[in-house]
Specification:
single chain; 159 residues; alpha+beta; six-stranded antiparallel beta sheet
């Protein structure tokens, strides 16, 4: 059962709460899709001004839609395509201030204006990506990068 935690007005404090609470909702002895389903919900709960939070998971050379919160989305993304495919290919976080200015951006929810994608990499092996979209331009900062990479590290540790 998810016990709603009182959120702060401060994004950094909310990230602290997210990192504190996430481990209670994931278990190393359960399938990774179960872990990622709860992770998507917990991340969505603690972040403000976001309209899509979810995972794309690598199978051969394609990223397939995994657990998420938000509107229905495209089901597959080729490696190197879109923001997700670029983050996966480079195995590095992509922080996009304005998705309309990113060549090859794949629109799933037309409301999305900015986006951050963090790869899930364990021992050099790519599992997939965490994708977070916002309806506001320039929503994400280096602070989001730092904390979402910490979230990704917690997740890959038990995948
Ligand atoms: N915008 C992403 C596609 C996924 S959706 O935003 C959920 C991209 O360009 O890779």
């Amino acid at each position: 059962m998810f016990i709603p935690v009182k959120k702060s007005e401060d994004r950094k404090e909310n990230y602290g709460l997210l990192l504190e609470h996430l481990p209670y909702y994931i278990n190393a002895d359960e399938p990774f899709w179960t872990t990622l389903a709860n992770a998507a919900a917990v991340i969505d709960y603690f972040l403000d001004d976001v309209n899509w939070v979810g995972f794309y998971l690598l199978e051969k050379d394609t990223l397939y839609l995994g657990p998420f919160q938000g509107l229905a989305a495209c089901t597959r993304i080729k490696m190197g395509h879109g923001v997700c495919g670029q983050a996966a290919l480079k195995q590095e976080t992509m922080l996009i201030e304005d998705v309309a200015a990113f060549p090859g951006h794949i629109t799933c929810d037309a409301a999305s204006k900015s986006e951050i994608v963090v790869p899930l990499v364990k021992n050099g092996r790519l599992f997939g990506v965490l994708d977070v979209d916002s309806p506001s331009l320039n929503r994400f900062s280096s602070m989001d990068r730092v904390y979402l990479e910490k979230v990704a590290a917690i997740l890959v540790d038990i995948l």
